[in-house]
Structure to design on (673 residues):
């Protein structure tokens, strides 16, 4: 009886209760979840970093070599190669192979002799003595570089000898390391846009820098190792080449632009005034309907293939006398893209913006007229007009056509500080355009805010383009909106990105950022700008026979005032009713005795229009004048100078064209009235 009780108790003690079953189920479930989580994690690592870890494992094996990737091409909008990477080869000697190429020293010497003879035969620049010296000093060296960056056709004769075992059985220990060399087929063409690369495929300046990650690929690896059977095996992970970048730049338009810039430099070359035709000359060509940059160039420029070369601008003696800091400063200045990095006072090219502000806010109706007597007295300062004797009665159209400062200042009184400051921001002045190029200048500290414009003198001088700074890309983008119906597009140089097989990776669609003015205001502004070029206005020199055009001139006096230094400009477009081509030209300090004549910029613009309008399929839309009827040169009335943007006497806060700084020291003009 007692025994039965013990057995019964034992069974009860080993029994799994429902509570224990639940606990076991929970534990089992957790283990399953952990295993599933581990599997998911391993799958994720394999998917995202499998290749990376594979390389690390293989790198720890017997031997490895890098397989370089090919950096992507840069082409113009029609596929013309502007930058490409070509394969080149380093000649590498494996001394260890040579010194172990036979069982006897005699056999080793035969191999060395045959290899050295083949090397000096195929590569005359190599010295037999130096090769033998390297072999002797590095008997176990497996990576001795004899020559660098040779094109394929130069190494091919040796490769053929090496493969011809029948006639050349003893050649050994030489291999060729492949890499890529960046080339620019057209040298300095579009250098301001393209930039260049340094060692390691690092983009410097321009598109090479901005789209560096797109253009670069991923290097591959080749691994050699001993397997478990002690046999040599090889594993190859192919390189991934970079993507190609197609630009909005048109190589034909770009070449015309650069040709006309150089024509101007040569035409105005004067050793007595330090040689060059100007301190800077820059041209920006855009499609005003979508923000595409068709050409962008400046003088001086550089050869993308040899960006460190200063010999085009300095003598050998001058270069040798430079210290490293001076040389780098000059190179950085040479590499700077004037169109997006330099800031300057725009002068009268800003007048259409002032008029558009008045029309769009309703403070101007378009029917106003003004009396110009040659100057305005504001806060104790006499601010002059282009005509010191006055234009007389001026309509709004006349004020743009004649570039009348007096009328513009009178307009500013009714437009007011609030409207003026508001529309400066709407036009993009003071802000980066965010063009897809590095180095764009900040200009937020280079314009007046509403509070500063409460001072009548500041408002008056701003109305005709003095006392605030812009960049070329800023003004051209805003100006495009004035003539295209008020649409402000983000300026850009990228058209699309493709992979190495030509498949489209990304296509750039024009980005409409905002509406600046109404369609009706745009039409009125275009009418005024048409008269400026086509009706005997200050832009007459830029007129191309047979084409309807519009545009505006600018002449800005530089700091320090009274030194005779000016920045002259012209911005124009064609056709007048439906603008398809916009050309903006700046000549900074033309190398002439009297600088303040916008005709220097107009001549360049006209030459660019003449060649590119037919090329773009834009045909004449006006009757041409009878030969000999009229004169293309501007004839100014007696007592008039082409200085529409002269600063008020005593003004000190206007800005000289220079690389934009992060802050601008604003010097207030005190009222003396």
């Amino acid at each position: 009886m007692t025994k039965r009780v013990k057995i019964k108790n034992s069974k009860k003690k080993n029994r799994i209760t429902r509570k224990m079953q639940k606990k076991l189920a929970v534990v089992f479930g957790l283990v399953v979840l952990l295993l599933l989580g581990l599997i998911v994690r391993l799958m994720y690592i394999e998917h995202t970093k499998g290749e990376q870890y594979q390389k690390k494992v293989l790198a720890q094996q017997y031997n490895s070599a890098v397989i370089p990737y090919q950096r992507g091409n840069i082409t113009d909008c029609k596929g013309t190669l502007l930058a490409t990477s070509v394969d080149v080869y380093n000649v590498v000697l494996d001394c260890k192979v040579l010194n172990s190429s036979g069982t006897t020293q005699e056999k080793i010497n035969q191999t060395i002799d045959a290899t050295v003879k083949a090397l000096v035969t195929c590569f005359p620049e190599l010295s037999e003595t130096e090769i033998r010296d390297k072999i002797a000093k590095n008997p176990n060296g497996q990576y001795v570089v004899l020559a660098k960056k040779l094109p394929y056709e130069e190494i091919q004769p040796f490769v053929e000898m090496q493969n011809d075992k029948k006639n050349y059985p003893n050649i050994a220990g030489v291999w060729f390391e492949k890499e890529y060399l960046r080339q620019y087929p057209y040298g300095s063409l579009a250098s301001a846009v393209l930039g260049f690369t340094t060692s390691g495929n690092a983009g410097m300046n321009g598109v090479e820098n901005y789209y560096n990650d797109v253009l670069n690929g991923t290097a591959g690896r080749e691994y050699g190792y001993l397997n478990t059977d002690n046999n040599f095996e090889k594993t190859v992970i192919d390189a991934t080449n970079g993507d190609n970048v197609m630009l909005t730049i048109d190589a034909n338009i770009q070449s015309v632009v650069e040709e006309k810039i150089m024509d101007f430099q040569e035409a105005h070359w004067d050793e007595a005034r330090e040689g060059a035709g100007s301190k800077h000359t820059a041209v920006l060509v855009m499609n005003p309907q979508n923000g595409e940059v068709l050409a962008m160039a400046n003088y001086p420029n550089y050869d993308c293939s040899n960006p460190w070369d200063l010999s085009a601008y300095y003598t050998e003696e001058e270069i040798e006398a430079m210290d490293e800091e001076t040389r780098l400063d000059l190179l950085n200045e040479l590499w700077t893209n004037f169109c997006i990095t330099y800031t300057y006072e725009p002068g009268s090219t800003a007048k259409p913006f002032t008029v558009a502000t008045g029309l769009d806010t309703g403070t101007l109706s378009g029917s106003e007229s003004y009396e110009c007597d040659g100057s305005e007295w504001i806060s104790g300062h006499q601010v002059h007009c282009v005509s010191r004797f006055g234009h007389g009665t001026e309509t709004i159209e006349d004020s743009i056509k004649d570039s009348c400062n007096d009328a513009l200042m009178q307009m500013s009184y009714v437009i007011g500080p609030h409207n003026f400051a508001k529309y400066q921001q709407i036009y993009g002045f003071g802000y980066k355009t965010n063009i897809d190029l590095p180095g764009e200048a900040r200009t937020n500290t280079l314009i007046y805010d509403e509070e500063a414009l409460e001072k009548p003198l500041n408002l008056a001088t701003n109305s005709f383009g003095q006392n605030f700074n812009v960049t070329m890309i800023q003004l051209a983008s805003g100006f495009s909106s004035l003539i295209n119906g008020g649409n402000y597009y983000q300026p850009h140089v990228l058209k699309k990105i493709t992979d190495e097989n030509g498949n489209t990776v990304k296509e750039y669609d024009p980005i409409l950022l905002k509406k600046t003015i109404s369609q009706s205001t745009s039409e009125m502004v275009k009418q005024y700008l048409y008269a400026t070029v086509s009706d005997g206005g200050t832009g007459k020199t830029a007129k191309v026979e047979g084409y309807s055009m519009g545009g505006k001139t600018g002449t800005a006096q530089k700091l320090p005032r009274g030194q005779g230094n000016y920045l002259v400009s012209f911005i124009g477009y064609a056709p007048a009713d439906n603008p398809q081509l916009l050309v903006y030209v700046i000549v900074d300090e033309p190398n002439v005795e009297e600088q303040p004549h916008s005709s220097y910029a107009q001549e360049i613009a006209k030459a660019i229009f003449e060649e590119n309008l037919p090329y773009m399929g834009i045909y004449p839309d006006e009757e041409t004048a009878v030969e000999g009827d009229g004169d293309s040169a501007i004839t100014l009335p007696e007592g008039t100078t082409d200085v529409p943007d002269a600063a008020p006497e005593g003004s000190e806060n206007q800005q000289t064209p220079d690389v934009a700084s992060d802050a601008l020291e604003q010097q207030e003009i005190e009222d003396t009235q």
